[in-house]
Amino acid sequence: MTPLQNLFYYIRDLYNSSDTCFDFEKDKNNPKSKNVNFWEVGELLTLAKKCEQKNITEFSLAINNNLNPLDFLLKLRRIAIPDEPKQPKELESWIEINRSTEIPILTIKQEIETIEKFEQSTQRINDLEKYKEQRLTSLFDLSLPNSLVDWIDLTDNKFLRKPELKVKIVLADNPALLKIANNFQKEFSEFYQKFELPFKTNRIYDALHTLHYELKGKDNKRIYISFGLVCGKIGKQDYKNFLFNVPLKLALKSQEFKLEFDTFSSKIFCEQFFVELLDNHFQNENQLIIEERKKDVLLNIDSFNSQQREFIFESDFIRTEYFDKGLEILSVFTKKQYAFFNEETLNYSFQKTPIENQLTFSFSPIIQTKIVESKLAISKDANNIVNKINELQASGNLQLIPDFFKKLFSIDGLEIEIETQSNTNQFQNNESKSQSADFGEVKHRSLFPLPYNEEQFEIAKRLNEQDAVTVKGPPGTGKSHTIANLISHFVAQGKSILVVSHNAKALSVLKDKLPIGIQELAVSLVNEGKGNESLKGSVNAIIRNLAQRYEETKVTELERQLTNLESNYANTLNQIYKAVQANTLTLKIFNPITNELENKSAYDWAVYHFEQTNYENQLLKDTVSYETETNGIAEKLVDLVAIGNNLKRDDFELINFQFLNDNAFIDLNEIRKYDIKLKEINEKINPLDYSNIPINSIDENLKNIILNYENIFRTFKTNLIAEQVYKHPNFRIDVLVNILNENDGLRKQIEVANSKLLSYEIDLSAVQDTDADILHQQINQIIVKFGQNKTLNWFTKSTLDKSLKRFFDCKLNFNPVNEIDQFKILEIEINRLKCLKQLSITFNKYLNSFGITKQNNIQETLKELDFTVEFTKEIIEFNLQLKTRNLPQVSITSDDLTEKISYIKNVNYYAEFVSISTFLQETKQKLITHSKPHLIIYKIADSIENTDRASYELYLDEYRKCREKQSQSLAFEKLLNEISKTLPQTALFVKNKCLIDDQYTIDKKIIELDIFNLKLNDFLTFVTSQTNGSEKLLANLQTLKRSIEKQTAETISYKTWYHKSRKVSDTQKAALNAWLNDLINIGKGYGKNTARNIASAITNMQVAKGAVPIWIMPQDTAVTFFPDASPEQFDLLIIDEASQCDISSLNLVFRCKKCLIVGDENQTSVVADRSLFTIDRTNELLDKYLISHRFKTQFDVNNKNNSIYTISGVIYPNIVTLTEHFRCLPEIIGYSNKFVYNSDIVPLKTATEKTFGEPIEIHYVEDNLDDEYKPLIVQKVIDEIENYINQFQAQQIKRLPTIGILTLDSSNIKHQNQLIRQISQNELIKQFEDKLELLIGTSREFQGDERDIMYMTITASHSIVEKENRFEIKPPRAATTEEYMRIFNVAASRAKEKSVVIHSIHPDAVGIMNQDCYRKKLIDYYANIQNQTNKPTSTKNLQSLLNKTDANSGDFEKSVCKLLYNNGLGDYLYPQFEVGKYCIDFGLIINNKKIAIECDGFTYHSGIVKIQEDINRQLILERAGWRFFRIQSTDWFYKNSKVSSDLIQWITDNTSE
């Protein structure tokens, strides 16, 4: 066996046990009391009939009447009953009422003993006075009057009066009182006779009400209707228990109880406790026989329990389905009597008297609670896994086993066969690993539809990289939220997911956490008393979605839309970063006030501007950008005025002309050279002869084209055959090309042969007289003869034909040929000759058609024919070039060929003529067309065109003189233009001043002041334009975030169905539809066909399960719901509250590829039933199966620290911890954060208004030290709840809080039961219990739950001991273990708004308690918080608020603080307000609204990292309900009035009711 098999053998044997209960009334941990937690159905039936007769509709039992049992079994409302008759005050001592019976019994005492005071009788007082007087005057002893007998002690002549005496009073002695008593007794009896039935029904209602709270939050106890009572005394053992149990559910709504059948969520089962009686019954038999009989009985019970069954109150049905089955199961007992039926009807009477050595089997139905902790299903499943491992081993598929187990056993170096597969399975292993590696492939994004944090990214990343991830989720850190995101992420990749938990509570909210579109992907088997309606809706949605078409293009489009949104989000984030960083932009500028070059940030310049008086420009008429370079501009303006004062108006005219430099003109010698060249051309040609040739056809390439033609023509003349063929009238180039192409293969064979034969000298003279074709056939015959031999033997050679033998006379490199390789060389040569022969025939025939004689050297002939083709193509191309230029084309055969060639050559002269003429014309045009030419330029241009050298020289000289006169005006214009680039309006203003006033002057200092203020205002305007949009950008960011979440959900939903629609087969779809029909037919799980429908549903579900993307169910349900133990049924297993899940979770891990283990070792852990898992038996199994495992103690179920979470933590120690806490207020979670989590939790919730009072309260109640019920603590809890109800009724609070009551000393069952009883019987609380959502229990019941207010009761008390004649207080036993830490951690983290501790430990005892005691830590923590809360708060004044602002912000935050204070917000204002680890510049809590004001932009706050932190912090806190307004520092100081107004208006808008 492999270690893995041993592990599951261990689980199989460990859970293969059950507790024994011989008496149902003594059920372990659930003792029974009639009419408290069990009721005889026969009595209920009698009561129902009486109620029906009396027309009491509040009590209905759906048995043997017209009520529909499909709706309910029992329906019950509390009946309003008048108060009982008020007892007369004078009867206070004479009446006793026994209320322990169903109907109270009143007894009148006939006599009573009482204490009578002496002063109560006036007669005694008078008689005493008389006696005293007589005694003083009498000489004799006087006897006491009767009224003083026993009151006066005269012993030893003393006269002592007793102050009081015990006396007997007889009622008959007081007729008036006797009459009053008789009348009251009659009235009392008549009252209870009249309301007997209502009182009985109300008692049942109250008991069910108490039971409702007992069952609430407990998964291991539920209510059943049990029947088939087996009763008897076997040996010395009394037995009284039921054989059959039908599950019920108890529903309370609007103060009406309903008991309904719940066979949908739980099976009817047969009990097997009586099997233990066999040892007594067959005590004289052999033990092997007894065991065999036990086995037979157990097989019958297993057979019964393996089937789905239904239950209805019909005699025939119960006889067939249960009575007969019971007889079969009990057949091993010989002595039995039956009391199941009265003739043909069911016998509802209760038969519970045991008979010696005989069993009575009766119907005797009761309604009762039962502990349900059967582990047999886990044991059977573990055995199935062992069998599955054997199957995988036999088929060579052990690689399918999850990697979790490989790592689990690799810790201590154990080798398992999974790692040693044979080479034949290597491909399968690789394929499996490839598939595993593809799990959760990280794309460009993580598909989280809900707000997320880095921890969730890390979990998704690790799940992609490894087979399991361990996640620690402290209380309130969003485990369900995280799981919902991860489910969404992986289901979008087509993964199938199973989510389980130890109990249903942790899963009940999970599906609702998923976005609406993704909820339809999930099927939840968390019943919550809703029957299968929710399940039917989920299955119906899956069927509907699978029936639709899903296109890959739509997936692409959805992802594209999501990518665009994410891109927009990133861009918006970058814009926000830039906007905030704009505050840190710097401006370096000369400040004429300080006469220094200053470099400051926008924030500093804004403060500077804010502090300066307004300045108005004196000279400059322009706006100036802060980026504009203005160095020297003041000096230039001064110089411009100086030059302008020296100019007259006419001096400015020359600037209107554009004068050219000398390099714009042609050199004088160039004019002469062009004149000579034109004359030479005219001597060569007449240009008019070429005028028909387009100018653009003459280019440099024409010379090359003509030269190329001349060269090839000369070569053509040397190839006689080519010339003869080309000039022949029948020559066609296409025919020649075809013939050459057709014979190209022969030419290539010859070419290859030539290359191969270069190193050989071949002599074929022996066979040269034979045709080449024949030679080729003969030599191939010889080569075949060789076969695989290198040479021919003499015999084969001798049998050759004579014509073949002569080949042996041929020589290769002067030696006769003999070997096969030599003959192959000869074959190549002969094949070459054969090809030459064929070519000679073909091409001599072709040449003959042109009258050319036969050519012997065919290879040379072919070269000339190749040239003929090339020449023909060149002639065609040459004529094509001539044609495109409109030049005459040439023909080799034409008579005027020489003239045409000459004409073509002379075209080049014409081209040169055109070139010169064009140049001169273009030069003229350039001169006369340039911008603003002076008039003389036209004369210069004409002289160039005519190549008139003398005129050209004269006009050019005049032009140069005008150009020199322009310099002064140009200097002014240049300076003016330079200034105009920066200050155009100012430059124009100065020019106009110079034109009219030659004495105009300006001040340089004024110019510098104007420039400084213009640039500073422009800079601040630019910065505020960048920062002003940050608030809108943040709003856009939130909008985009919501859009991304919505788009992500839509993308996930569509991608999931896209993947599923391709994976789900038609068979699975059919099974899914059949499953839905079965669910509809099952209805509420009551009726004759229910079992058949449930069985069918299970069968169809096993086929259809792959069609469901997400399964959510309790762990135990999953084991039975998916009986197939095969691995890889699910891609991902998620175990929530894993610290409460024991090692049986490994059964589910085996079924899945990967797993996510979410838990917290600091919360309540696994509690093993020591009666089932005894220490000795557990250790024995550990040693048997896991002796060699290094961490075998991790599998010990009796260790409270062990769970699937701790096992996962051992093999995956890099645990991801969730830290963001949203549930509790910081004061509440502070206890856990301080004493359990080392302050790692980040609380993000803030109290906006204390609707229910301060978040922390502690009450010390002086309760009875010895009374475990702690009635005063119970009453304090009830008073607190009633107080909230009264406030709600008086409209002092808007809503009722949800309330939980947690008993920290969980072992004190009496106190817990007292709480349940008192609260369930409180009439005021009953009216509002739906809204209060009351839950009463221990930390174990509350884990995974939360309430607005939690009341935690501590019943452990101090004690008072006498020591040395004085009394000392002794504290209770210290609660220092880790289990107490978990209990108190869970308890202290359930409250959302308020947490209250109520205890009765004297403060002095608390003071001396062990410092490590968790009770003391809790009490001290709550007391300290309460003391701080009760301290008088100091009045907020402006200075106290200013002192709390951030010192690094300079005057920025102080300025904002003053504004808020001056606008009446001081009482609501909290500078540097802390929310968990985050800090807000200003927090405002107004009208239950949380307002955050952030001051951005000062240097400390403007680094990119700091900005990113601020934005991330805002996004996180907005999830916690904060609304943000961000003020940019530059905006605040530069636009203070507007920003201040906007801020106050925004606060008003966001805090109004």
**Given the C-alpha coordinates, what overall shape results?**
flat
Helix run count: 56
Mean pLDDT: 84
The total beta strand count reads 43
Tell me about the largest β-sheet: 10 strands, mixed
Structural class label: alpha/beta
* Strand content range: 5-15%
Q: Which regions have little confidence, pLDDT < 50, spanning 5+ residues?
A: 411-444
Terminal CA distance: 72 Å
What is the alpha-carbon Rg in Å?
56 Å
| Helical coverage, percent range | 40-55%
Which properties best describe this structure?
seven-stranded parallel sheet, 14% strand, alpha/beta, ten-stranded mixed sheet, 1553 residues, flat
Q: What's the layout of helices and strands?
A:
Blueprint: H1 3-14, E1 38-40, H2 41-53, E2 59-61, E3 74-77, E4 95-98, E5 105-108, E6 111-117, H3 122-137, E7 152-153, E8 160-161, E9 164-170, H4 175-194, H5 196-215, E10 221-234, E11 237-253, E12 256-261, E13 269-270, H6 278-281, H7 287-305, H8 315-329, E14 336-339, E15 341-342, E16 345-346, E17 359-362, E18 366-371, H9 376-395, H10 403-410, H11 426-437, H12 454-465, E19 468-472, H13 479-491, E20 497-501, H14 505-508, H15 510-513, H16 516-519, E21 522-524, H17 533-546, H18 552-581, E22 586-591, E23 596-601, H19 602-611, H20 633-644, H21 668-684, H22 701-718, H23 720-727, H24 733-742, H25 744-756, E24 762-763, H26 772-786, H27 794-798, H28 802-805, E25 811-812, E26 815-816, H29 820-848, H30 858-884, H31 897-929, H32 936-945, H33 949-965, H34 967-982, H35 984-996, H36 1004-1027, H37 1030-1063, H38 1066-1082, H39 1090-1104, E27 1110-1114, H40 1115-1121, E28 1130-1136, H41 1146-1149, E29 1152-1159, H42 1175-1185, H43 1204-1211, E30 1216-1217, E31 1220-1221, H44 1226-1235, E32 1242-1243, E33 1256-1260, H45 1271-1289, E34 1299-1303, H46 1309-1320, ...
Parallel strand pairs: 14-17, 19-29, 19-30, 20-27, 20-28, 21-27, 28-29, 31-32, 33-39, 34-35, 34-36, 36-39, 42-43
Antiparallel strand pairs: 1-18, 2-3, 3-12, 4-5, 6-9, 7-8, 10-11, 10-17, 10-18, 11-12, 11-13, 15-16, 22-23, 24-25, 25-26, 37-38, 40-41, 41-42
Helix pairs in contact: 1-9, 1-42, 5-46, 17-38, 18-37, 18-54, 19-36, 20-34, 20-35, 20-36, 21-31, 22-30, 23-30, 24-30, 25-29, 26-29, 29-30, 31-32, 32-33, 34-35, 38-39, 45-46
